[in-house]
Hints:
The chain is an alpha+beta fold. The chain has four helices and three strands; from the N terminus they run E-E-H-E-H-H-H.
Amino acid sequence: MYYTYILKTQKSIYIGYSSNLRKRVEEHNKGKVRTTKKDLPVKLVYYEAYHNEEDARIREKRLKYYGRAYAQLKKRIANSLNKV
């Protein structure tokens, strides 16, 4: 399986994809990811699972670079984002 995921830090939101979600979140929390290491801890607030890696990568790119997809998802998970 491949996962597109959203992490929440105290200051920002991070969007990524991985084939091993647990390991990847652990790497973020251990400071091994350059983008999030200065804003720890991170909390997993949302993920989507895919059978195909390309599908997960496409979804990640759409969430990162196309504001409409991200805006719609933010509306769906607003309560999860606010609780962190």
